[in-house]
Amino acid sequence: MNTSVTGLLTLLLLAASTLSTAATPVRIGLNYPSSGEYRQEGLMQRRGALMAIDEINAAGGVLGRPIEMLDADTASQPDRAVANVDQLADQGVRMLFGGSSSAVAIAAGRRARERGLLYFGTLTYSNDTTGKDGHRYMFRECYNGHMAARVLSNYLEQNFADKKYFYVTADYTWGTTTEASMRQFTDTTDVTAHPQVMVPFPRFHYRELKAAMDAAAASDADVLVLVLFGDQMVKAMRLAYELGLTERMQITVPNLTLSMVDQVGPAIMEGVVGATPWTWNVPFHFGHTRGQTFVNEFVRHYNTYPTTSAASAYSIVYQWADAVQRARSFDSEALIRALEGHRYTLLKDEQQWRAFDHQNVQSVYAVRIKPRVDVLDDPMKQDYFQILESMAGEQAAQSHAEWLAERRAHGKPETLE
C-alpha cells in the first residue's frame, strides 16, 4: 500500500474517531429525593434539569457533546446520598447536583470532593453548607437561612415588633441554623420569652409533631415560626388549622415553595408569610423576559408552574454548561476557576457565584400566600405568592467578615479547601 493511501486511511480513521468522541454524551448526576419527606421538591428538580438538558442539547450540547443525566434517590438520608455519589461517579458523571435536605447536600458534597467532582446544591438552605462546612467543590445555587431570615425579618419587624414568638423546628442543620438566623434578625434570642420545640428529621412520628403543635397552641405567642419543610410542614399546617392557630397567630414559614402550598391548599395557607429566592411570578413582576420564557415552557411541558427547586436545577445545568464552554474543559479545577466571581443573568436579575464561599448571591423575596379567591382566578389555580419585599443579595447575604468569624469559631480554614 502506498504512503498516500495509508495517509488517507489514517486521516479517515482520525476523523471517525473525532466524530465518535464528539457524539459521546457527557454525564451529569442528579442526587435527589424521589421518595421520602421531600419527594415533591425532588420531582421538580428532575423536571427542571431535564428541561435545561433538552434545550442545551438542541443547541448543540457542551463542547459538541450532548448531556446525559443519571439520577439516584437519596430519600433525604445522608448515608444513601453518599452511596449515590460513589454509584454515580463510578458511572462516569462529570458533576453532581441536588439536595432538598441540607444534611444530604453537605454529606454528598463532602464525598463528591473526595471523588474530585463539583457538587451544586439545589435546595440546601442551612447556613453551614457554604459556611462552616463549605469547601472548594461545593457551590450553592439557592439562598441560605441567613438570607431568608434577613428579608423576612424586615417585614416581621415592621408588623410584629415586640411580639411573642414560638418556634417549631426540624432537628437538623437547616432547621437549627435557620432558627438561629430568624432569632437574630427578629430580636427573639431569649428562648424563655420565645420558646421552641424541636421535631426529629428525617424520621419522625406524627405524635411528635402533634405534641409540638399542641405546645404552640398552649402558648400565648403572636407569631408561630414553622422552621419545617416538605411533608413535615404540610402536616404541621394542617394541625395549625385544626387547632385554630391560623386564626390567632401570624404563621411564618421561612422557606416557602409552590409544592408545599399545593399540598396544603390556599384555604389553609392564606396569610402565611415566608421567604424565597424565586417564584414563578417573579419574572413577570419584575419584567425578566428569559424567566418568563422558562415559566411558559415549563407549563407547556408539565402543566404546572415551576417551583423554586425546578428553577434551581434548571439554572445549575445551564451554569455548569456555561462554565464548561468558557473553560473549554470538564475538569473540576478549571470549572472552579471559571465559576468563582462569575456574574450572570438567567431567570431573574443579576446573580453571582461569590468567590470566597461559593454562595450564589442573588435577590431574595418576602412573600405572603394570597386569599383563596385570588388563587382561583389564576388559569393554573397556583397564583399563591404576593411579593411583599425584594432585597438585594449583597444586603441579604453574610459579609466576608461574618463568614470568617463563623469559620474561625468552628476551627475551619479561612479559605475554602
Automatic annotation (TrEMBL):
Residues 1-22 form the signal peptide. Residues 25-370 form the Leucine-binding protein domain. Pfam families: Peripla_BP_6 (PF13458). InterPro entries: BCAA_transport, Leu-bd, Leu_Ile_Val-bd, Peripla_BP_I. GO terms for biological process: amino acid transport. Keywords: Amino-acid transport, Receptor, Signal, Transport. Belongs to the leucine-binding protein family. This is Extracellular ligand-binding receptor. It comes from Isoalcanivorax pacificus W11-5.
